[in-house]
Design a protein that fits this description.
This protein is 36% helix and 24% strand. It is α/β, with parallel strands linked by helices. Bound molecules: 5-amino-5-deoxy-1-O-phosphono-D-mannitol. The site of 5-amino-5-deoxy-1-O-phosphono-D-mannitol has 16 residues, from helix 9 and helix 15.
């Protein structure tokens, strides 16, 4: 949430900041701003409401050749999206960009009588607080930042510059990510390494409680208690092509279509098809530890929660003597839940930075429970704080709606379940069908995408003007229905809700009329006939049903049908591809911004 960039070196800072902000725009896009400093101490501050393109229009009339600056793209928390609330915020000679929330900003504001506040933001309070200690350059900037941060409560990733010392940027973090890119005669900062690609592959990931003074050829890090920290330089693994659209109209479509490859990356080196087993190195649990597990908690938000819910259905099917408890992070962090002995917690997050998920991780760790990350973003906070973990390796997911991460999160968790089952001695005749289908899943995803894309586009055009969607499924198709409904509502703004088929007659059936369509997920299997009866009940009440099934014998007179020619155990994963494409094409038909839906941001780093 909110993107930060900064540059100090020999190149044009404005150019770097704008291109960096464009790469971070997925983190927030209601306003943006940059400030650059010239050697003689003058500052050029440009801010604009809306997308970065609006800021670029201002930039065209205010080009400077400054070599140092900071920038920000905002997702509003305090104060509406507007130019005055956009960052950077100025106080005296300093400028600040901030990602996070200063919780005690009201108290602090009371004490800052000398500053004339121009915005409604908590961030300007932090800028004014730093300035109150800076005393117009009479103290080093870094000392003023440290003094202020010792009083601030909440979360932050910040970058601060001063007109009085235009050869340095001071950065700090607590709860919001910050990466320092080390180049030759230039140093950069960003909230996400993707903004650094093409400039450097060398990165230092700042830890919570650390502050750094950055110059063009040096980085000095210390803790807020003034203990020096030796910087660990790491290689950025992502490539530039991974963050480009690659010929697609939208990142979302690219990310949907690359799932055969992204899942292949998740599986790489982890499936042994000859002996029908899986092996995950990252969790670091011995056979004995795996055997002891009696309870699995799966923590996530949004799509990551749905992935956990779906995985829980699978894991329970093949692992004896184990209970699986998928939980919503924002709820679980405040519940007084009893965690039984021999529990392990899976912490699921694409970004690895989601505030609620991170807070749960910390709470769970305090109780001495082993935590295992199911994370995509390498080096992210969650990935670094868990006891062990499995990266899903799907590459950057840029579109705000999560797609390829979901598929790989489910399978990574199922594989973790399989390692428990293997250790507990579950018969290979039970586990092998899962392993075989996991192994073949990338191919099945490829075939499904190829075969259904055009049909879904046509159906989506037909339903684009419906006001409401009901997604229906049971067993493993129920979490899949929930994920499908989330996808549709978040990008097309169509009101969509999911119900377990069995729940229909307990209330939702009353909704059915011409404003609604019903998307019914009907995988083959034990509960297929029951689900079909439920579809009949919907049809009998004039419902507009789109059926998605891999059962050849399906012959109800529904409005539309999407037949899948493949898939057995993991058919719901394939059905989810249908929901992803359906949401995409409905949104395109409506002409909305597919990759950056209103009010949202990709990485939710505030509570
Ligand atoms: O980065 P995370 O996986 O922790 O994010 C969790 C949710 O914010 C995320 O899945 C969100 O629900 C997506 N926008 C859904 O498409």
């Amino acid at each position: 949430m909110c993107g930060i960039v900064g540059y100090i070196g020999g190149k044009n800072a404005q150019d770097f900041l704008i291109s960096g902000l464009k790469r971070l725009e997925y983190r927030g896009y209601d306003s943006a701003g940059i400030v650059t400093l010239s050697e003689d101490g003058s500052a050029t501050l440009l801010r604009a409401k809306g997308k970065i393109s609006n800021l670029e229009e201002k930039l065209a009339k205010n080009k400077r050749d400054d070599k140092v600056g900071i920038g920000h793209t905002r997702w509003a928390t305090h104060g509406e999206p507007s130019e005055k609330n956009a960052h950077p915020h100025q106080a005296g000679e300093i400028y600040l960009v901030h990602n996070g929330i200063i919780e005690n900003y009201k108290e602090l504001k009371q004490q800052l009588k000398e500053h004339e506040f121009k915005s409604e933001t908590d961030s300007e309070v932090l800028a004014a607080l730093i300035n109150s200690f800076y005393k117009d350059g009479k103290h080093p900037l870094i000392n003023a930042v440290v003094q202020a941060l010792k009083l601030a409560k909440g979360t932050y990733g910040i970058a601060v510059v001063s007109k009085l010392s235009p050869d340095e940027i001071v950065v700090a973090r607590s709860g919001s990510p910050l990466v320092i890119g080390v180049g030759h005669g230039e140093t950069m900062i960003a909230s996400d390494a993707s903004a650094l690609l093409g400039h450097t592959k060398q990165a230092i990931y700042l830890n919570d409680g650390e502050v750094a003074m950055i110059k063009k050829d040096s980085v000095e890090i210390k803790t807020l208690n003034a203990e020096p920290v030796s910087a660990k330089v790491e290689e950025i693994e992502t490539n530039l092509s991974a963050i480009q659209k690659g010929g697609y109209d939208h990142f979302l479509l690219k990310e949907i279509m690359e799932q055969p490859d992204s899942l292949t990356e998740t599986l790489r080196g982890r499936v042994n098809i000859e002996d029908g087993t899986v092996r995950l190195g990252g969790p670091g649990l011995s056979e004995g530890q795996l055997r002891k597990i009696k309870h699995l908690i799966i923590v996530g938000c949004g799509t990551a929660y749905h992935a956990g819910l779906l995985a829980s259905y699978y894991i329970e099917k093949f692992t004896p003597e184990i209970t699986v408890e998928p939980v919503i992070a924002s709820e679980y962090r405040y519940r007084q839940s009893y965690i039984p002995e021999d529990s392990v917690a899976l912490i699921v997050s694409q970004s690895g930075e989601t505030a609620d998920t991170l807070a749960c991780l910390r709470e769970i760790k305090k109780q001495g429970v082993t935590t295992i990350g199911i994370v995509n973003a390498i080096g992210s906070t969650i990935a670094r704080e868990v006891d062990g973990g499995t990266y899903v390796h799907v590459g950057p997911e840029i579109s705000v709606a999560s797609t390829k991460a979901f598929t790989s999160q489910v399978i990574a968790m199922v594989m973790f379940g399989l390692t428990i089952a293997q250790a507990k001695g579950v018969r290979s005749s039970i586990l092998k069908p899962y392993v075989n289908e996991i192994y073949n899943l990338p191919k099945m995803i490829h075939e499904t995408l190829e075969s259904v894309q055009d049909a879904i586009k046509n159906i989506a055009n037909k339903y684009a003007n419906y006001e409401h969607g009901i997604y229906l499924g049971r067993d493993t198709a129920y979490p899949t229905a929930m994920e499908g409904a989330l996808k549709l509502k978040e990008i097309s703004y169509v009101d969509a809700n999911a119900y377990a088929f069995g729940e229909l007659k307990h209330g939702p059936l009353a909704l059915i009329d011409d404003r609604f369509f019903e998307l019914a997920l009907l995988p083959k299997g034990e509960l297929y006939d029951k689900a079909v009866s439920n579809v009949q009940e919907v049809l009998a009440r004039g419902g507009h049903v789109i059926a998605v099934t891999n059962e050849e014998k399906f012959d109800l007179p529904v409005d539309d049908i999407i037949r899948l020619n493949t898939g057995d155990i993991f058919a719901p994963i394939l059905m989810n591809l249908v929901s992803q494409l359906f949401a995409y094409y409905v949104t395109v038909a409506k002409g909305y911004d597919v990759d950056q839906p209103r009010n949202l941001a990709k990485s939710v780093t505030v509570e």
